[in-house]
Amino acid sequence: MDGFRWLYNLAKALIAFHLFVSPATAAPQIHTSTYPRQLQGQDNDTNFEVLPFIKTFAAVGDSYSVGIGAGKRLEGLGDWYCSRYDHSYPYLINGDGRLGNDKDREFKFLSCSGATIPDITETQLGALEDGSQQVITISGGGNDAGFAHVLNGCIYQWTYGTQKTCDKNIQQASDTLNSAQFSESIDNLISLAKKKLSPDGHIYYTGYQQFFATDDRQCDKVSWSWLLGPDKEYLTLENRQKLNSLVNLTNSKIEAAVNRAADSVDFVSVDKSYGEAHGRFCEAEYPEPEPDRPGLLLYESDTEDPKSKYARFANILQPEATGSDLVMADTFEGQIEALYQSYLAQQPNATSHPKIGLPPGSLINMTTNIKFSLPSNLATTVTVSRKSASHSNDTIAKNVTQPTNSADFVEILQHFNATTDQKNRLYLSAFLPDCLKRIFHPRPRGHQMMADAVIYHMTVRNANKLKEPVSTENVPVRT
């Protein structure tokens, strides 16, 4: 009877989500498809249990896994400084009703913004016991290729550059991705992750999504550059194609490594879904800038999430969104912050900027002590000292003073449940509001799409294991 009940639930899942998938094989290659509609949180039909036997789940990876800026920032051990959010796809997967009650499951959210493949391998997977995890999700590779540098050189130009700078950064990223070392690092990552799996465990390595639509040239005259002068970059068709090609190259290297690993790992992509949902930048029917359109699946610099669900990011002029913060220097936010501080160093009179809209005098002199304001629920203010950040030629700050002997600094880290590893890291004082530190990352709906796709892979795998029939028509991707 239990077998028939499970089959009934599976059939209900497949029908409810209008799925689309290639015919199942022992290791199915699944290409997702979407039918755009407004996402209103979890649908009631997802609350039946299809995978309640999953009792251990670990998420490792970079800022695409932590869900930077999507929803509410978590405040558990290590969460704050790794920028983990409650609408990240791992968090959504763990809380999804199809996996049963999350209180019955041990969820280890180890992903951290800015993580490279060595970080994931050595620090994050190193925190897991061998043979302990039924599910591991992985997102990684973008930071190894210098994602922040490409955005700086080709889109925002916080440090001075020309088209040659953009092309150079893209070439350097391509060289990294095409290197034997990069492929070997992914192989090593997957190999180590396999050791962490329980006998019935499985890995789901998630890909990245192309940023731009490339159907026409309506974006050719649009610029998101902060550069003042004739050398600013534009979102030309050629540049959009180059950046998309980097994403495709990254995904191809990841998928190739997954195929080499053969068993116990799937590559999961919703890139096709982003295109079918018209969720990328520069869609023909949405002239840029259009940062708040409902169907946009990636963050622009001025994107505001709905106040009802994501009030923290509703207005970049809110005090909680513009107060100074501490960010680890080697996270994605830290790299963006350092580049922005380079911009300030090159523009000494820039006390305000139209991209931020901060009133004159809001930016603190970078050569003085930094006044760090804790959130409103912590009624105290402390001061953190550090050296002035001096940058040139697109170089991330490496001369940041780490005030490890400051009692005030330690108090800040303790307030936010910093781990021992985090207490030993380099920090920057951040002035950019959160809405500018999550650029080019998925919005909550984008994370929901990835969560649904991963769960579908889980469902297909379990059906194959039980030798049950699987529909060839559907995929659980919602927008």
UniProtKB/TrEMBL annotation:
From the UniProt record, give one GO term of the biological process aspect: lipid metabolic process
* Single GO MF descriptor: hydrolase activity, acting on ester bonds
Task: Tell me which SUPFAM superfamilies the record gives.
Answer: SGNH hydrolase
Sequence ranges assigned to domain SGNH hydrolase-type esterase in this UniProt record: 59-270
What InterPro entries does this protein's entry cite? SEST-like (IPR037460), SGNH_hydro (IPR013830), SGNH_hydro_sf (IPR036514)
Which Gene3D superfamilies does this chain map to?
A: SGNH hydrolase
Q: Where is the signal peptide?
A: 1-26
Decide whether keyword Hydrolase is in the record: yes
Coiled-coil ranges (or none) = none
Q: Look up the domain of life of the source.
A: Eukaryota
> Does the keyword Ribonucleoprotein belong to this entry?
no
UniProt protein name: SGNH hydrolase
This chain's source organism reads: Xylona heveae (strain CBS 132557 / TC161)
What does UniProt list as this organism's lineage? Answer: Eukaryota, Fungi, Dikarya, Ascomycota, Pezizomycotina
